Amino acid sequence: MCAAPAKTSDADIVAAARAVIAARGLDALSLQQVAAAVGIKTPSLYKRFDDRAALLAAVQDDVLLELARVLGDAAASGSTPQDGLHAMGRSYRAFAATHARLYPLLFGSSEPSPAARAAIAPVMTALIALLGAPLALPAARTLTAFLHGFVTMELSGNFQMGGSIDDAFDFGLDAVMRGIGAHIMRTVS
Fold first, then answer.
1. Residue 171 domain-assigned?
2. C-beta separation of 74 from 122 below 8 A
3. Which of 115, 156, 164, 174 has the most CB atoms lying inside 10 A of its own CB?
4. For residue 57, is it within any domain?
């Protein structure tokens, strides 16, 4: 990011970009819309963000930091690491539903940013407490794969065979957690 006048903050610009994406989708985001929303001319945006990709990266970080707060709160609500992981799984799903058009940004970068690391930190903390550091990352990847797959299918409307989607989610989350629990029992024995 480059220096710019102090009248409009980066946070204002990121919030405006988030609002555009939330209302119209990622493809609808344009620097012209964001500039108009914060009351500046488009060239002034380039003083803060080099291009659309840089603005999207800032929005991605903002969304990831919000998710980090949500997951941290959920983790704190559990009396055990397992309870915290269940709560984080449910909170993750609720976050995705609430931010359906922003959700794809969570996985928009191949290189994890500090914000991405913050978002995964509560999960890693719980998994390290349960499994130890060497197994926490594979367990986190397994849990993330289930959550992302389920949420992506749910947001796309792909669960059309009847039955309760809530029950299916709980079943899947419980199955993943039982698998993690079974691994704990194997390593303790």
1. yes
2. yes
3. 115
4. no
What average pLDDT score do residues 110-132 get? 92
| Angle of helix 10-24 versus helix 52-77 axis, rounded to 10 | 80
pLDDT in tens, 61-108: 999 999 999 999 999 998 899 899 999 999 999 999 999 999 999 987
Closest CA to 58 of 98, 101, 102, 11: 11
Q: Are 129 and 80 in contact (CB under 8 A)?
A: no
Contacts of 106 (CB under 8 A, 6+ apart): 60, 63, 64, 67, 119
Assess whether 70 and 145 both reside in one domain.
yes
Look up the domain containing 2 and give its range: 1-50
Match 């903002």 to its residue by tokens: 62
Q: Would you state the pLDDT for residue 101?
A: 96
Whether residue 174 is found in the same domain as residue 104: yes
Length of the chain measured in residues:
189
What would the two tokens of residue 111 be? 């290189």
pLDDT surpassing 70 at residue 5: no
* Claim: this prediction has a pTM higher than 0.85: yes
Q: In terms of domains, do 133 and 166 share one? A: yes
